[in-house]
């Protein structure tokens, strides 16, 4: 968002300077060109689209101000020509608009669908600031995957989820009253620059519908700067008001103090993880307690505290915390897997239980790597390996993987049962199975 806003403002400054001397506009045009090249090099698909959209809006504002369709036609033609140039010379950047296997557009749509389900649960007041990441897990149906979702890929949906539709209405009302200050575009009021800045501000609002640029402090500050550029000059009475000046300075100081206080707050969750890794279990538990006081829905803090308690021999308390962590994060397969590693030596039965859940959380196409890690991590115990086979009765591919990993004697004991399920596998998988059978027959 910041690059797009800077490019729009640069073009506005160039247009404003052009009316006095075209040579004064050249530095602004060169700077804008550098920003556009950066957008293409960084494959910023959303930023580029909204930049071109802002330029079309700017041309429309100029056409409306001059009451001339010719201005709109010329401006639109220039934008289309620039778009064509970018798409022809953009290479991989142009390919992003065609989508593909690595495209994230479809996944974003699934996230938006699940976010709307979350909003439907608390439509008016929302779930509270900062709670989206902790609560979104319970509403994931269409977008279920092993990828953690920190935000809904939309500033407006994030606002609706945490503050409700009332918060969205207030934000839209505030944006309307602020942007209304850009009108009218009177002569002598830097109207070309203000028109470009207004177009950039509107593009920023639209960008927030399909991405989350507003949660970055730098982008938010630049957007506010662009809004100020779009505004008309304040009346003399308002500029000379000592009350307004004093109030603005006080609010600025309070904002600085608040930011400094937040920056000084210790990260107890990260400290707890570091202490657990260092083998300092009691301090790790205490740090996790402090982290949970601040964020009681953070599954990572529960998991860290559970590990610290398990290492201290407090098994019942550790089991309760592990269960809380799995409840708060019901999709991530590595969570029950790592829990099982804690119990591997002391309580192998608990390991098998949570590893079974880890496999259940993964689709068949993604379970092979984790199951292989389980086989390599498992203790050298034939009964334990037999239980690992028993936990995947409906996963033929994993059974073949088990057959290739265990000692020959254990493989022969289960060969007949695995032969029956091998018929359900692909030709490539059956070829690996047949090679393993020949190895067993030759030994």
UniProtKB/TrEMBL annotation:
Residues 34-171 form the O-antigen ligase-related domain. Keywords: Membrane, Transmembrane, Transmembrane helix. It comes from the Bacteria. GO terms for cellular component: membrane. The chain crosses the membrane at residues 25-42, 49-65, 71-94, 115-136, 156-179, 191-210, 216-235, 242-263. It is found in: Membrane. Its main location: membrane. It is a multi-pass membrane protein. The keyword Translocase does not apply. This is O-antigen polymerase.
């Amino acid at each position: 968002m910041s690059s797009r806003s800077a490019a729009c403002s640069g073009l506005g400054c160039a247009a404003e300077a052009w009316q006095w001397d075209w040579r004064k506009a050249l530095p602004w045009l060169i700077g804008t060109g550098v920003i556009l090249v950066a957008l293409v090099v960084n494959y910023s698909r959303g930023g580029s689209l909204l930049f071109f959209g802002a330029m079309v809006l700017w041309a429309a504002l100029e056409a409306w101000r001059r009451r001339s369709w010719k201005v709109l036609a010329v401006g639109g033609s220039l934008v289309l020509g620039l778009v064509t140039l970018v798409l022809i010379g953009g290479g991989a950047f142009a390919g992003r608009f065609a989508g593909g296997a690595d495209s994230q557009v479809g996944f974003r749509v699934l996230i938006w669908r699940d976010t709307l389900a979350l909003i439907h649960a608390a439509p008016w007041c929302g779930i509270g600031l900062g709670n989206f990441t902790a609560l979104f897990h319970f509403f994931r149906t269409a977008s279920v995957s092993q990828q953690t979702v920190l935000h809904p890929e939309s500033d407006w949906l994030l606002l609706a989820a945490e503050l409700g539709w009332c918060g969205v209405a207030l934000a839209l009302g505030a944006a309307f009253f602020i942007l209304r200050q850009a009108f009218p575009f009177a002569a002598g009021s830097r109207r070309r620059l203000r028109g470009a800045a207004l177009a950039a501000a509107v593009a920023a609002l639209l960008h927030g519908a399909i991405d989350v640029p507003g949660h970055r402090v730098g982008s938010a500050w630049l957007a506010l700067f662009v809004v100020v550029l779009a505004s008309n000059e304040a009346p003399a009475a308002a500029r000379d008001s000592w009350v307004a000046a004093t109030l603005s300075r006080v609010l600025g100081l309070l904002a600085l103090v608040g930011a400094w206080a937040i920056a000084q707050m210790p990260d107890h969750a990260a400290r707890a993880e570091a202490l657990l890794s260092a083998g300092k279990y009691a301090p790790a538990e205490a740090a996790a307690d402090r982290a949970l006081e601040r964020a009681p829905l953070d599954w990572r803090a529960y998991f860290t505290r559970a590990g610290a308690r398990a290492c201290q021999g407090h098994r019942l308390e550790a089991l309760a915390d592990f269960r809380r962590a799995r409840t708060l994060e019901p999709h991530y397969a590595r969570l029950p897997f790592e829990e099982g590693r804690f119990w591997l030596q002391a309580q192998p039965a608990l390991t098998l239980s949570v590893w079974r859940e880890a496999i259940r959380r993964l689709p068949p196409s993604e379970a092979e790597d984790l199951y292989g890690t389980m086989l390599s991590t498992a203790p050298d115990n034939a009964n334990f390996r037999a239980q690992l086979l028993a936990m995947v009765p409906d996963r033929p591919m994993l059974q073949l993987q088990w057959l290739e990993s265990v000692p020959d004697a254990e493989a022969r004991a289960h060969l007949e049962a695995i032969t029956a399920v091998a018929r359900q596998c692909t030709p490539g998988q059956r070829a690996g199975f047949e090679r393993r059978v020949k190895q067993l027959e030759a030994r």
